Amino acid sequence: MTERIAIVTGATGGMGREIVADLARDHHVYALGRNHEALAELGALEKVTPVGADLVGDLLDDDTASSAVRRLLGLTRVDVLVHAAAIARRHSVDSARAGDWRGQYDLNVVVPAELTRLLLPALREADGTVVFLNSGAGRGAYPGNIVYAATKHALHALADGLRKGEANNGVRVTTVAPGPTDTGMLRALHDEAGQEYTPEHYIAPAEVARAIRLVVDADDSAQITGIAVRPRVELADRR
């Protein structure tokens, strides 16, 4: 039996690490990230190959693409591609400048679009699955998260269009949209806003990996097009 291959971007983040560990149970996982210490830890797992990558530079600037990423683009089959890499900075329309918009759009939208394009032949060969890690912000926005929310709205459109465009090519496409999840990104956003951070109020990252596992294990007759993962008690409903 041919070994199944998975690629996970944002692998060194809180959700990414859990996703890699889960997929490695029955895939060889290429774990892409920039945190070298976390990559080394992932590399100690069986069937995980860590790949140091600056995805914006590697994919959007042909002059700086790393040899490791170029080797991935040469894979002949990819069974699962998970786009978990993202950045979030607090911005209103008044505070955001062109560079703020471009920076978040490059990583959150353009990188997943370009990586998917480059890997489509390998995904088609494997009848593979593409998972876009979205957010509750992909369906709503408030003054402090406008740039990030806009990128996640765009990511929904990317996933929906890709799913319809690849329907007859064997590729399944899914959006998994977690609400507030206990990660370093969320903690940093709270710190930036001067807000109290209470980890037990947020989704455990392992639950996001469980949702992706449900998608990956779906029978060949179906595709799960979207999953929303929400806190057990919504933050606005807490008493």
Automatic annotation (TrEMBL):
Similarity section: Belongs to the short-chain dehydrogenases/reductases (SDR) family.
Pfam families recorded: adh_short
PROSITE patterns assigned to the protein according to its UniProt record, in alphabetical order: ADH_SHORT (PS00061)
Protein name per its UniProtKB record: Short chain dehydrogenase
Keyword Oxidoreductase appears in the UniProt entry: yes
GO terms assigned for molecular function: oxidoreductase activity
Gene3D superfamilies the UniProt entry points to: NAD(P)-binding Rossmann-like Domain
Database matches in NCBIfam families: PRK08219.1 (NF006073)
Organism for this UniProt entry: Corynebacterium halotolerans YIM 70093 = DSM 44683
Lineage: Bacteria, Bacillati, Actinomycetota, Actinomycetes, Mycobacteriales
Keywords, comma-separated and alphabetical: Oxidoreductase
Cellular component terms (Gene Ontology): membrane
Annotated SUPFAM superfamilies: NAD(P)-binding Rossmann-fold domains (SSF51735)
Transmembrane segments: none
InterPro entries: NAD(P)-bd_dom_sf (IPR036291), Sc_DH/Rdtase_CS (IPR020904), SDR_fam (IPR002347)
